[in-house]
Amino acid sequence: MTNVGGGASEVAQRDDDEFEVAVPASPTGETEVMPASAPDHTRRIPLLDEEPRPITPMPGDDAAAPVAPPPSRTSRTARFGAALFWMAAGWWLFAVVRWGTEVARASNVDGVWRQVPTATLTDAARDATDRAPSELIALVALSFIATLVLLISRGRRWLGVPGLGLAAAAVVVAWWHLGP
Prior knowledge:
With about 180 residues, the protein is mostly helical. The protein contains four helices and four strands, in the order E-E-H-E-E-H-H-H.
């Protein structure tokens, strides 16, 4: 043993040569020899034969257990209609963002902000909503199906009126782009 702390310390530490590690014996006493060609990752690891410990329940009253929320009274049809409604509303949100981008580009020329004429606003609205004729037709169909489903089903009927507004706006925009 060597003295770690120097002259005044009485703490002693073993040298590295004196350190011993006990190696546990194999439970079966024999070792299994695997050929070098056999993959090691397919061997099963032996599990302990012990039973798992039983877990005692927490002390307390069963009445204090949390109660699940009541089941939704909204029908599956109404939820389907609401999903269609929010898809159409998302299309309109993206159209508004595209319109705002077009107006911002038109109003900022060479770093100077200028007033935008009405014709430019109309052109920006046309550019924002004119992606493809099939997109507009799909929007009209989606909006009308959502409106019909919401107005007929129970549970989310209040979304049917805004859905009708979105459907009417979709028809106007589609007529503006695809009409004569």
